[in-house]
């Protein structure tokens, strides 16, 4: 704790020291240094009618705001921030200035037959090196006005610009419109860019160019930069290369023998046409007797950029902060992208291959013919709570089963509707059904009560809204006749399908069930690593249930808890895709999220309860792969999901969407592969594939909700009750051609069955 407190105090002290220094001007004027001064001065007259002096077409390229002070019949032009008298206004200028308090002055003109090439908005990883190569071949120096954000992203290119003898000016951190931002932001855009250059290569410059150009309409940017000690550099030849579409040739500017400052861009878009224009323009200008220079010959000594200026802590911290904001997220996104691609590819390939192998084995397996009397006696345990609307249909499906030796034990868990009456009425017409009534105790208590009072050596469980296909119980029971890989089968997981595909939400769940069961669980089954046998469609060996203690009340995922307990006892778990049950899935987003929150929270509880199995080679792939993967699926989103969202949003803001789009396309393609394999395995409707493109739009918000909701519940120690969605009685068994469904199951009347029941 003391170390944590010390760390926090150190961070706070660092901020107290560094932040003021990092935001302080690099060059301090003598007067009028308040951040609001430029706006207050400009507000003293109409901005559309600011007096302009020194302007002449094709001439002056430096600009500044000058204060006007009448004295002895003359007008003195003064620097607003030093009080220095720059010069007297000429007679013509006095007429232009009139009674104005300040004026916009243009001054400085390049020598004839001199071109000062300036490049804005870089550096760019593609085009700036191309232009630097061209300038090196031609022996042409230039003046670059890079954006601070690009300096942070591509510091090596920035250092190359300086190393090869070019000059650099300030173009703000992120190319902002000064009128659209407050004074503090505007100042930091300039100060920050200067500190980034100092930290990146010990380079200090007092040249400034307004990002949006045109000092006549950007007097605020001009004056704020002037207040911070910068000189504004304009141009008189603008190629307007940013207006040309990629591939469209840019006409070279016409030269007239006078000196010029030429503007092109080395970033901000596709600049291949700019490079081609310069390749033609530079030799042509030389042929006309022009020489190329940087701005140095026109600058007063105090404005010449300096090399090898020691960077301060505040400069280094500014670069570190901007790197964290601009570069680190891209590194993280890149790492997550390749990690995601790699792990997803490996796991998908592995699970698909294993699932196909297991599916092939199951289809090739030849089952021995079993006489009707030799099938194990099965007890179907049906816990119900307020299932009046759907339980009759559930019983009808069980009654239509082709299994010869079974009973159905329905446990009414304190229902408050007419469920009990429905069950008792049904039992009067179907001798196979026994009804047990108990006070409400929850699903696991109801299931355990039913198991205790049942008589079968095999126990089949299902939910009150679940409809079994006629062959399901027999497909379950055949696995309990012979051992698997030398182990007794303790449980068989069935194939749960969504039976109410009514809207987008249920269609999404249907695809999820298919891909999860037909690929993931089939692959786990081959490795002997099934972690969840769904209680809604499962068969259990009674002997194993007794040893495991039945369903536990410790977790909300009682079926997952029981599955792991059985495997700790050395039993085998298998998957049976022919044992099909149709269930009613939540129809609303609220219902879906509530259901999955309970499942996820319960699975977290189960993982914690059986944590000794994690990474334990004793349990094979279950302990080394399936359970760790389940843990990672919770922990990784908790840690990386917020960061991933921040990185993704930041990348989209900066127009860097390609990696996100590529990753999304890859994930969709991978899920498409899994879905195709799953559909082919069980011969499902191919229309499920229409959900794949929008699958993640539901999955990601759902995952965020259940992961963080479960974590919050775990931290609070909050209990979550038995979730029972609102029933709509919308599940229907599909018609099966050629299937003969008996009208009713016979009562247990054979002496053999009675003896078996008594022995249980």
Principal-axes geometry comes out as: elongated
Mean pLDDT, to the nearest integer, reads 86
Q: Would you report the number of β strands?
A: 21
Oligomer: single chain
Continuous helix count: 23
Radius of gyration: 39 Å
User: What structural class should be given to the helix and strand makeup?
Assistant: alpha/beta
Q: How do the strands of the widest beta sheet line up side by side?
A: 16-15-14-17-20-19-21-18
Which ranges are low-confidence, i.e. pLDDT below 50, for 5 or more consecutive residues? Answer: 737-760
Q: Whole-Å distance between the termini? A: 60 Å
Give the biggest beta sheet. Answer: 8 strands, mixed
As a percent range, the share of helical residues equals: 40-55%
Care to describe what's here?
It is elongated, with a radius of gyration of 39 Å. With 760 residues, the protein is an alpha/beta fold. The strands form three sheets. The protein has an eight-stranded mixed β-sheet with strand order 16-15-14-17-20-19-21-18, sandwiched between helices. Strands 1, 2, 3, 4, 5, 9 and 10 form a seven-stranded mixed β-sheet that branches. Strands 6, 7, 8, 11, 12 and 13 form a six-stranded parallel β-sheet that branches. 42% of the residues are buried. It is 46% helix and 14% strand. The chain is built from 23 helices and 21 strands.
